[in-house]
Design brief:
By secondary structure, the protein is α/β, with parallel strands linked by helices. The protein is built from 6 helices and 6 strands; from the N terminus they run E-H-E-H-H-E-E-H-E-H-E-H. It has 2 domains: 111 residues, Rossmann fold, CATH 3.40.50.1820; 41 residues, no CATH class. The strands form 2 sheets. It has a 4-stranded parallel β-sheet with strand order 1-2-5-6, sandwiched between helices. Strand 3 and strand 4 form a beta hairpin. The model has no long low-confidence stretch (mean pLDDT 95). GO terms for molecular function: hydrolase activity, hydrolyzing O-glycosyl compounds; palmitoyl-(protein) hydrolase activity. Belongs to the AB hydrolase superfamily. Keywords: Hydrolase.
């Protein structure tokens, strides 16, 4: 997207797994990234969650080749992830070392998120190299951040970044 469709630097916005992909995109294309807005960012979450399962559960998943991750966000009640997908995801973990992102970063996360713990946003904030990082925790926010006030906050956050970035030029 950044190489083929985007003209100039962009503000990347990603939610959940999209937040993880947003970070990876910013690392891969720093010249195309002006700022980031992560919503319920799930950096490394799938890999970490799988590794915290009891060994017998992990072995069973490996034998079957699939892990069913329970989620209220899925219409089926769970996401089915292949072991190949998890192995590939492990190659893209970002939370073990400093994250080489220096642009402004805004992280919004709900404290009532039952899919991705809010402390992951805190870990991202601690590891990005940018000096311009804000974390916004919504006391009643859930994973999808779909309430009217949540959406207003996202729009306000993006608008505020646009204002900030255009006044710096």
């Amino acid at each position: 997207m950044l190489d083929e469709l985007a003209d100039g630097p962009q503000i990347l916005v990603g939610s959940s797994m999209g937040g993880w992909l947003m970070l990876l995109s910013a690392i891969a294309r720093p010249e195309k990234t002006k700022a980031l807005v992560g919503i319920s960012t799930a950096a490394d979450h799938l890999v970490t969650a799988f590794k915290t399962l009891p060994i017998e559960v992990r072995k069973d998943c490996e034998d079957k080749g699939v892990w069913s991750l329970p989620s209220k966000s899925s219409e089926e009640g769970a996401y089915k992830l292949t072991m190949d997908f998890l192995a590939e995801a492990e190659n893209h973990c970002v939370l073990q070392s400093p994250i080489p992102i220096t642009c402004p970063v805004r992280l919004i996360h709900g404290l009532k998120d039952e899919d991705v713990p809010w402390h992951i946003s805190m870990q991202v904030a601690e590891r990005v190299l940018s000096a311009d990082v804000d974390i916004i925790l919504r006391r009643h926010g859930q994973h999808r951040m779909a309430e009217k006030d949540d959406i207003k906050l996202m729009v306000y956050t993006i608008d505020d970044l646009i204002d900030k970035l255009t006044t710096l030029v």
